[in-house]
Design brief:
This protein is of the alpha/beta class. It is built from eight helices and twelve strands. The strands form three sheets. It has a five-stranded parallel sheet with strand order 2-1-3-4-5, with helices on both faces.
Length: 228
């Protein structure tokens, strides 16, 4: 798949993002500060497919790294960059995009959504294949955020869609309600675990016969047994 750099001074953020991107088959490089991130980019740029840069880091911040990268590139290639930050102000997002960022994600975030945006960005840059997966009668197109059953569109809410994609990407694995909540709703979400059960019930209903792919693991959570 692709080689991706994650630069963030918070180890838990790096671990969270890394775990999800590795499930898609990506190779992950990590940097804990801006200077390490820039050094990694300079040493490995021709082998990198994407850099995810936190804006607020010790040493050089994300904007400084982005400016230096674009200056070095000139007309020699283009490394896609996704900015990752807790600063949600419009001015910061506009600044990042104007300085050459390809996408901008604010914290707290859903790892499922971030992984999907990574796939979309890589596809847009011609660095990945279209993520369309056929599971029996069920078809999931992550670029179009489209779910079909026997070629008929299924209307899902954003959270129902993210839940389905999370299940699909973790087939045959028993997933606890807590892990599902953290993955789909975000690590800063403090809602009740019953939120998961409510959304699973609605998702199963909308999937009809395909809803049986989502199996209940009694006293623990759920397991998705969809087969290609």
């Amino acid at each position: 798949m692709s080689t991706i750099l994650i630069a963030d001074d918070e180890a838990r953020i790096r671990r969270l993002v890394s775990d999800f991107l590795k499930r898609d088959g990506h190779t992950i490089l990590e940097a804990a500060d801006g200077d390490e991130a820039l050094a990694t980019i300079e040493n490995r740029r021709r082998g990198l497919d994407l850099a995810i840069l936190d804006v607020m880091m010790p040493g050089k911040d994300g904007f400084e790294i982005l400016r230096e990268l674009r200056r070095q590139e000139g007309g020699d290639g283009h490394l896609p960059v996704m900015m990752l930050t807790a600063r949600a102000e419009d001015a910061d997002q506009v600044r990042g995009l104007e300085e050459g960022a390809d996408d901008y994600v604010t914290k707290p975030f859903s790892p499922v959504v971030l992984a999907a945006r990574v796939r979309t960005l890589l596809k847009r840059e011609g660095r990945a294949a279209a993520p369309v997966e056929q599971l029996g009668a069920l078809s999931i197109n992550e670029l179009r955020r489209e779910v079909l059953i026997d070629n008929t569109p299924v209307e899902l809410t954003p959270k129902e869609y993210e839940l389905l994609v999370y299940f699909k990407n973790n087939r045959s694995i028993a997933l606890s309600r807590e892990s599902i909540l953290n993955a789909v709703w975000g690590y800063d979400y403090f809602g009740d675990l019953r939120t998961v059960d409510t959304h699973v019930k609605k998702l199963r209903a909308k999937l009809g016969a395909c809803g049986a792919m989502i199996e209940t693991v009694r006293g623990y959570g759920y397991r998705f047994e969809g087969s290609a």
